[in-house]
Amino acid sequence: MKIYVAQNSGFCFGVKRALKKTFDAAEERKKRIFTYGPLIHNKQAIEKLTDLGVESVDNVESAKESTLIIRSHGIPLSIYDKAKKKNIEIIDATCPFVRRVQEIAREYYNKGYKVVIIGNPNHPEVIGINGWCDNNAYIIENDSGVKDIEFTPKMCVVAQTTITLEKWNSIIDKLSEKAGELREFNTICLATKVRQESCADIAKKVDAMIVIGGYHSSNTQKLFEISKKYCENSIHIETSDEIPFEMLEGCEKIGITAGASTPEWIINDVVKKIENKGGD
Ligand code: SF4
């Protein structure tokens, strides 16, 4: 029996990096430390972090004189100043791809451009980017938002990293009528697309497919849908306790993929259990 783990599965680069920084910090500091908002939405990972003394807070004050970890979504610039004043050590795990968007927003805002962010106004990443241009950006989520934008001589457009290319293209088309000079920065990160493509590639060549991730995780559900399309014998599980060994009986090739909030140790655990056929 051969096991194929999708090349791009589980955490994206930015989340993996943030999690590593957090575990390293918790082990080095050996005291209660904080993350600015929950680091990831995965029950097992959060339990592990809690055991190590990592707690999520939604305001800087709660981390007074301690360590505050900035998650991959990033934060507004003003939070760094607040933390400094409260004597808080910052560990910055802002994803470098998000940092690029923040820096573009700041640079063009300082050059006198009106910044437009295409994305969800309530998403922490977008709130963070806006905080790099004095909370002065137009934030639009769909085509209909363009009509509320006034004509401006100089406009700079960036994207929330997880929007689709279709959304970007359709809004950019309309925005060109709203600006004298339009500087476009397509800052979409392709992590999700690549993960889905890897899932399809594996599902096409295996006898059974296991998709690991939270039952409420929409990106895991999407992976499961893709997997089923190419491999009838697909199943969605959360942890290695749910591996359907009867389903795998007689399968020569087994594929595994995982949603964006599934930690590597859960994926490895599933692989190990299948290799050992249920034993430890
Ligand atoms: S920008 Fe891409 S790599 Fe970075 S955290 Fe977001 S999805 Fe992950």
From TrEMBL:
The lineage of its organism: Bacteria, Bacillati, Bacillota, Clostridia, Peptostreptococcales. (2E)-4-hydroxy-3-methylbut-2-enyl diphosphate binds at residues 41, 73, 123, 161, 217-219, 261. [4Fe-4S] cluster binds at residues 12, 95, 189. This is 4-hydroxy-3-methylbut-2-enyl diphosphate reductase. Isopentenyl diphosphate binds at residues 41, 73, 123, 217-219, 261. Dimethylallyl diphosphate binds at residues 41, 73, 123, 217-219, 261. Its cofactor is [4Fe-4S] cluster. Binds 1 [4Fe-4S] cluster per subunit. It comes from Maledivibacter halophilus. It holds the Pfam family LYTB.
